[in-house]
Amino acid sequence: MNQVPIFLNGGFHQDERGILKFVNDFDFETVKRFYLVQNESTNVVRAWQAHKYESKYFYIVSGSFTICVVKIDNWEKPSIDLPVQVFQLSDKESKILFVPCGYANGFKANQPNSKLIIFSDKSLDLSEKDNFRFDPNLWLDWSNIS
What we know:
Elements: E1 6-9, E2 11-15, E3 18-22, E4 33-37, E5 46-50, E6 56-62, E7 64-71, E8 85-90, E9 95-99, E10 103-109, E11 115-120, H1 124-129, E12 132-133
């Protein structure tokens, strides 16, 4: 399977009761678990974590994040010059970033108190057996990212 990162677009509805955000094209059938991330500061970088078999979905609950992904070419010793895809996500848009298996991901908050929810299609047990971590500075100088 040769999938690439894509956005699942949603929308907003606002009336006198408040705002409702939705992504109706998101199918929870394959989701096994989720977790919420709130970094201590905008200087915290969580990178690079990769999975051969696990796919992830990223949704911004509040604030904004920069999410970067790299398609891994060699799981034992990946090339140092792999292209990085950079995505800016904000709570001002209702969309989910799908990152298929075979990619490394990294992210950082752009605003204080930003919250990111990540959905996974694998159980924690399977994810831990399929977990690859690489140096945070391998493909990107995060100090230039905001």
